[in-house]
Amino acid sequence: MSEVDPPRFRPDLYKGTAAYYEQFRPPYPDALLADLRNRLAISGDDRLLDLACGTGQVAAPLSGFFRETVAVDAEAETIAFASGNAARLGRPGIRWLVGTAESPPVSGTFELIAIGTAFHRLDRPAVARRMRELVTADGAVALLWSPVPSDGDQPWQQELRQIIVDWLDRSGSADRMPSGWQEALAASPDRQVLERAGFTYLGRFEFPRDETWTVNALIGFMYSTSILSRAALGSAIPDFEADLARVSLGRAGRRARACARRPSPARVAASLRPCSGEAAGTANHPNPAER
After folding, report:
1. How far apart, in whole angstroms, are the C-alpha atoms of residue 165 and residue 79?
2. Who contacts 40 (Cβ-Cβ below 8 Å, separation ≥6)?
């Protein structure tokens, strides 16, 4: 698939997911965010741009380290939730804007531009070119990723993967993932996309962390996704929850807990800085359940 014909995801896929996204998506590890600040020597006097921001998993924890933070998402419902949530929690200093990552409604430049678990869903070449225009001469961009509970080899994770596959078919949700999206990622890895836009690739850095999952947490997580949200499942919600309740986390039913240790990677590229590192691992193709 050529750069001029990227896969197109429907714009309404996260309808009704914001509250579940905020509650059930694990936050990015503190170690990842601290490493990002230290690695890029954030000055504190400039601005942060969070593209495809969702409910603010990147903007909220980093906003205190910048003079101004701007968070942009294409879904008005998500921005309304994030803005209201920030007000309730006393998180001033973030401007929440509705707009696409390809054409964000911003002006000026930013010291850091971040995209959290979303770059694979965007017109990556167009977004990379726009980021190159918006980042300061000594600034950087960062692609953050968060693993999903079905990533792994534990028996319960294998069961969960099969349930996801089965329900994509049963719910008719397969069309929520455009044809050829994985092939596009393989043909043009993220590093290549960034370098073509004029960035210097600094590396891929991983921060493993243990996550504990219950059945209720798994249900909430799936409702935060674009593929098996409550809107996608409709009247089949009770049957879907019953299937998830049978995932063998342990012997305590919905109170059972399972732990998964997975890395949260960050890919970092700078605008004009010399390269200071190499990729620490191969490019991963995100699970479709990721944002």
Report:
1. 30
2. 111, 112, 139, 140, 142, 268, 270
Are the CB atoms for 15 and 100 separated by under 8 Å?
Answer: no
Whole-number pLDDT of residue 250: 52
Virtual CA dihedral for 26, 139, 205, 61, nearest 10 degrees? -20
Q: Half-sphere exposure (CA, 13 Å, Cβ side) for 23?
A: 14
Q: How many residues does the chain have?
A: 291
Rounded Cα–Cα distance for residues 87 and 286 (Å): 32
Q: 136 in helix, strand or coil?
A: strand
The sign of the CA dihedral 290, 58, 283, 208 is negative
3-state secondary structure (DSSP) of residue 25: coil
Radius of gyration of the chain (CA): 19
pLDDT digits (tens, 9 = 90+) for 39-56: 888 888 999 999 999 999
Q: Is the pLDDT of residue 82 over 80?
A: yes
Q: What is the pTM of this model?
A: 0.87
- Our separate counts of H helices and E strands in the chain read 11, 7
Backbone angles phi, psi at 9, to 5 degrees: -90, 140
Contact 113, 134 (CB under 8 A): yes
Please give the helix or strand (H or E) that residue 80 lies within, else none: helix 76-89
φ, ψ at 271 (rounded to 5°):
-75, -60
Helix (H, G, I), strand (E, B) or coil at 140: strand
